[in-house]
Amino acid sequence: MQKAEREQELDLERKHEEDLQRLRGFRLLDDDFMSKVFEDKECTEFLLQIILNRNDLKVQSVHGQHDIKNLQGRSVRLDILAVDIIGRVHNIEIQRSDKGAGVKRARYNSSILDANITEAGDKYEDLNESYVIFITENDVLKAGLPIYHVDRIVRETGELFNDESHIIYVNSQIKNETALGKLMYDFSCTDAKDMNYKILADRVRYFKEDAKGVETMCKSMEEMRNEASRSKAIQIARRMLDSGKLTYEEIAEFSDLTIEEVKTLDEKQPA
Predict the structure, then answer these.
(1) Domain range spanning residue 250?
(2) Is residue 18 included in any domain, yes or no?
(3) Which of 28, 84, 127, 143 lies at a CB distance of 3.0 to 4.6 Å from 187, suitable for a disulfide?
């Protein structure tokens, strides 16, 4: 028993050291780290002011790694969801993969926002203005521009449709002396001392150098590990259920889920 406990202790120490190593290499371009940094309302406000070029923008609330449901009830996780004081809704996504920032993904996120910021009986005219903002590691739209604003237009007249639904792509490849270029430089830094903007550097420093901040990030990484492990277990259990060859008890044993959890996953189970 003592040997098993010691091995478990060593495994925890190893994982903790790996987490510290990963933490040192994190940038704001890493979505999990970015989500923690921008849970701070002032940081998100600063970010949106630069991207939207609006000094008057004030954030009322912000949520990192926010779960939101589509019309079928399936949960979708947004990196950042922020609402400003006049009700405009902002979804900020970090995408290091071009595939994750495709035009259909932008359309989907926009529709998810619309479906979740209205209540039964609301008038369509009262639908809040919304922004889906992708900060991408590569130039996804490939025109060499630092930022792309996507709005619907009336094709025949060239005039804006003015439905107040906006999609923005920010190209982090361009790091120049503009406010946006300096911001994108900061998104690529691993060390707070190299960053341009103090408000962001202080927040990054907290999570990388302050004992309490480091503990928070390590706990967050542990939770992500557990969530990934559970997600994998659910996938395995679903494949076993689809095979139709194993009992609930056997699937629970192989997947490390409870029998009740396996039963819940079985969509073919009689009501």
Answers:
(1) 223-265
(2) no
(3) 28
